[in-house]
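So, can you check this one?
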Amino acid sequence: MIHGIDVSSYQPHVDWKAVASAGADFAIVKLTEGNGYTNSQAATQVDGALSAGLLVMGYHFARPNGPNWAADAEDEARRMMARSGSLFCFLDVERNEPLTTQENALWRAWAYAFRSCCGQAGHAVGWYSYTPFTATMALEASWEATLLWLARYPLPWRRQGDYEKWPDAPLPWARVDIWQDGGDANGASWPGVEGHCDVNRFAGTRAELEELIGSAR
């Protein structure tokens, strides 16, 4: 098992050598959000993590909206790819409020259009979310071939023992690839990161993760 962190503009000051020295093997950096926001720290964070010897991935925070859903998804996909270079990236799809039946169908179509646009450009994309939201979206079976990065935190009303075993994957996935398991509403902490950050683990070796994201690209 190996560990890693994910960062965004909320972590502008990171000592990446300290992060690596504390045992992190990988980092996931927020690149873009919606069709207008770019993480101003992304390039520095990616370069710093790479220089410290970490495996680096990126992610895009989805902001599905209408009326032209397909065009909007493709625009967001191109914005992410323009900033990701050769990084493997995840699509972060989540919302606090439940989706209506109509919204669910539109968000599902939006996510498929985003992934299709990336695929046509030769850029595979993984999925990030949490189990209840992913389950209600009822994604197409084809998503199972992508990497799954799942958020599941040790919240007060859950049993501590629940965090001693790897979480089950929501359909259509058979397994969780990366588990974002650290922190609470305020996030966790990691040496080298000023303030809070989310922490993650991968149930395998560094070489296996490197091969997994390499083959997915």
Summary: Residues 2-216 form a domain with the TIM Barrel fold (CATH 3.20.20.80). The helical segments are 16-21, 42-51, 69-84, 101-120, 131-137, 206-216. The longest helix spans residues 101-120.
